[in-house]
Design goal:
The structure is a single chain. With 189 residues, the chain is α/β, with parallel strands linked by helices. The protein has one domain: Rossmann fold (3-Layer(aba) Sandwich). It contains six helices and six strands. Helix 1 runs parallel beside helix 6.
């Protein structure tokens, strides 16, 4: 008899506002700045055995603000800069579409999570999504994952102005990615 494969939960991270400073539309690599706490936080997830996957909406492509090759270039830069500090990103998924295209990959729809789960053999239920946008928390809840809102990037405004309209609150609201990792690792214990 063949044993069923045990799928692992993962940690899905938003890019802009969570790993790196929020710059609006990231239209040039020189504008990309990783938060000083991000590499250590991701390294702690790596050491705990979590796959770390970046999922990011990049509608500037569909809007004609920059080419898709720029998104790829910045994602590669992010992976390199984090790796230089001992932090590993297992995969990066991005949605280049805008709302009008009604695609399945644009957050809060879970298409990027579902694709990552298939390709990387992950279990979405019990995984974590960390972001500065409530739409990502909503995406987490749609697949049985936990959502954490960070107050970096757009997070503080999302929390202060919109939390009374959230259908379901995040599992945690924390200052930044390092604090989110504390929550995730504490939950694992």
């Amino acid at each position: 008899m063949v044993e069923a494969e045990v799928l692992r939960p993962a940690v899905f991270l938003d890019r802009d506002g969570t790993i790196a400073e929020e710059m609006g539309y990231m239209n040039h690599p020189s504008r990309f700045h990783i938060f000083p706490f991000a590499a250590e936080a991701i390294r702690r997830l790596n050491q705990a055995g979590f796959p770390v996957v970046v999922v990011t909406n990049q509608s500037g492509v569909a809007r004609g603000f920059f080419p898709e090759t720029l998104v790829q270039q910045i994602n590669e830069q992010m992976v390199r800069e984090l790796a230089a500090q001992g932090a590993r990103i297992d995969a990066v998924y991005y949605c280049p579409h805008n709302l009008a295209l009604n695609c399945e990959c644009r957050k809060p729809k879970p298409g990027m999570l579902e694709r990552a789960a298939r390709e990387l053999r992950l279990r979405l239920a019990g995984s974590w999504v960390v972001s500065d946008r409530y739409a990502d928390v909503e995406m987490a809840h749609r697949v049985g994952a936990h959502g954490i809102l960070v107050l970096t990037g757009y997070g503080r405004g999302e929390y202060e102005w919109n939390r009374t309209n959230w259908p379901r609150p995040p599992e945690a609201v924390v200052a930044h990615l390092a604090a989110a990792v504390d929550v995730i690792l504490e939950d694992r214990r």
